[in-house]
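Methods — Computational structure assignment.
A single polypeptide chain was analysed. Its primary sequence is given first, followed by the predicted tertiary structure written as structure tokens.
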Amino acid sequence: MAIFDEALFAIIETVYIALIATLVSIPITLIVSFASARNLMNENKFTLFIYATLRLISNFVRSIEPLIWAIIFSVWIGIGPYAGMLALLIHSIASNAKLYSEAIESIEEGPVEAISATGANKIQIIWYAVVPQIILPFLSFTIYRWDINVRMATIIGLVGGGGIGTMLIQYQGLAQWHEVGLIVIMIALVVWIMDYISTKIRQAIY
């Protein structure tokens, strides 16, 4: 228990790494997801080119695990929580963009046609016909992503991404197994608490 205070600070840092990565990803993901939805980008060849390009980039970024991105950013900008946050951020954008865009592509076309018939422009169509249909799935996906990021923030700490993972690998390397046991128990508790909270929030949304 001598390292409890240090471990508590590290686990709070881990949760904040995941939270900041999730929050910063939201506005970028929204823009990318709307531009990655085929039903909104099939007007001409230029918009289809944007759609195909963004899909290709997001598929590439998503195919690389956050652990690998954490290694890349740790080498690029140095070991620490900032590198871990950037790794989670870029993977969150790519992963949520796919979920968001698929939610947009599965909307009911009736409201879109009705708003279009009034002479509304593209922005008005999206705001009044698309957004009301996707806001609840978007909230659910985002909360679930924060839950995933908390777990991943622990793993990327093992390669220099900061937080509790970095502390875990240090004590494991010194073979201080009692300290390692405490850290593992704290990680398990935090993951369980986050899973419980995210589940309750998603249930309240729906």
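Note: The mean pLDDT is 85.
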